[in-house]
């Protein structure tokens, strides 16, 4: 077994921050699979594996190259069926698809506006130039203008998690009594914020905070292997 995960970092190569990489790190831990991490910056990604991708995560599993966090999770369940399942069947895969859509359309835009300048400042000079140029082209405005909404996003962020908060009244994880890949999807978004920004978005006694703390402790505390910002 020879598994390599390419993970996005800033100047500090020991602080991967991509939400999609964290989904995969938790998925690999869930399956109990050993792996090595190769840290890369933004401008290194197009050079990986012969130019196979412009984004991470990328997983090299022996002869198999898998791109995209959801595709990686599917691959891990198919390639290692004797290890704990990430989905527990078709219904779990469908649930995870919905959770991913919700996270990427609701949580990710908010985290971006909160942490945008923090992420920029975590990068080395070459990656900073790339990040500023690519994000300003995407948003059609300077990073500072996008980040002007930061205070409003911090104030309203907890409300975006109400569906999860309501669900946690009856079960400890999205997956039920134990976590599944759907949990790791939302965890990835909050871990992204935890590592990149010092913004205080949730009260300590918020049910979502308590769920996040449980997720940080999973699989020997892999989520705590990188300290908060």
From TrEMBL:
The keyword Transferase applies. The keyword Transferase applies. Residues 89-229 form the GST C-terminal domain. It comes from the Bacteria. GO terms for biological process: glutathione metabolic process. Keywords: Transferase. CDD domains: GST_C_etherase_LigE (cd03202), GST_N_etherase_LigE (cd03038). GO terms for molecular function: glutathione dehydrogenase (ascorbate) activity; glutathione transferase activity. Residues 8-84 form the GST N-terminal domain. Gene3D superfamilies: 1.20.1050.10, Glutaredoxin (3.40.30.10). One of its GO terms (cellular component) is cytoplasm. Pfam families: GST_C_7 (PF22041), GST_N_3 (PF13417). This is Glutathione S-transferase. The lineage of its organism: Bacteria, Pseudomonadati, Pseudomonadota, Alphaproteobacteria, Hyphomicrobiales.
């Amino acid at each position: 077994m020879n598994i390599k995960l390419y993970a996005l970092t800033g100047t500090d190569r020991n602080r991967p921050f991509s939400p999609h990489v964290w989904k995969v790190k938790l998925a690999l831990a869930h399956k109990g699979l050993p792996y090595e991490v190769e840290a890369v910056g933004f401008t290194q990604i197009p050079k990986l594996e012969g130019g196979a991708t412009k984004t991470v995560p990328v997983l090299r599993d022996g002869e198999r190259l898998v791109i995209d966090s959801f595709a990686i999770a599917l691959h891990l369940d198919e390639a290692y069926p004797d290890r704990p399942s990430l989905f527990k069947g078709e219904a779990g895969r469908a649930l995870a698809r919905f959770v991913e859509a919700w996270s990427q359309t609701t949580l990710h835009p908010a985290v971006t506006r909160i942490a945008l300048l923090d992420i920029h400042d975590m990068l080395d000079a070459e990656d900073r130039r790339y990040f500023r140029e690519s994000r300003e082209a995407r948003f059609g405005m300077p990073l500072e203008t996008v980040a002007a909404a930061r205070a409003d996003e911090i104030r309203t962020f907890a409300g975006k998690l109400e569906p999860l908060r309501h669900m946690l009244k009856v079960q400890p994880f999205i997956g039920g009594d134990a976590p599944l890949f759907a949990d790791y999807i939302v965890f990835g978004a909050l871990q992204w914020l935890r590592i990149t920004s010092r913004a205080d978005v949730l009260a300590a006694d918020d049910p979502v905070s308590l769920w996040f703390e449980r997720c940080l402790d999973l699989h020997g505390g892999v989520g705590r292997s990188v300290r908060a910002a």
